[in-house]
Write a structure and sequence with these properties.
Helix content is 84%, strand content 0%. By secondary structure, the protein is mostly helical. 27% of the residues are buried.
Length: 279
Amino acid sequence: MNVSVNAAAADPRPAAFYLRIVHGIKRRPWIARLLVIAALILMWEVAARYLVDPMFLSPPSRVATSFDMLFATPGVPAALQATLWELAVAFLISVVIGLPLGLAIGLSRFSYRSFMPIVMLLYGTPQITILPIFILYFGIGPASKIAFGVSHGIFPIVITVVAGVQNIKPILLTSARSMGANRWQIFRWVVFPHMIPSFFAGMRLGMTGVLLGVLLAELYVSTAGIGYFTTMFTQNFDSTRLLGLITTLAAMAVILNEAVRRAELHFGRWRRFEAGRQA
């Protein structure tokens, strides 16, 4: 009897199975990501059904089945299109202004010492406090949302571009100049490849900031757009459609972030090749 118990206790098969699961998760990080998301959704479901008043929190099962009702709400599809357009324009303007501004500040020691403190001061200022100024100058139409989104998205791009340029080894720039490279060639073959990681990190941060700025402006001054419907659903205690709208915005942000990540992988593929060659 004791021999059989000891044999069962010493059976290595459960431990080996557990180790295989752990190693499988380590090799596939997306499995851990899905497990965390599933756990959060399960906690949300339990809290919404048994702990919180349904008027204030709808379970995810109900939210998932309410998207037809959400998109059937008059004005919601048009509001999504308007918000996406404002987001795209604000992000494009942030990149077009932020990239050359960051290069101008980062490539010149005088510009860095003169203007970088000003950039950091403006970045540290809570932009929500100057929203009335944007409304005063741009009105309550799309222009104020786009401008306020740009004010949130441009600074992360400028700061990360400056950081990427500052990390370039001076010997690389000196070597390029000594071989007769002009400014465009130096930027194309030396500066741009080395600032790709920081630049795309800034773009991802800037996209998040643009989305935040556009939605904040819509919450305060819009008579249409996602912010308007967010306020309306909140005031009507319609948590189901409110959470469905928030889920739609989250999905939009994930898709845009993934698009930027794929662009980073495309333009930075030489770094992976170089790392693999050194390994």
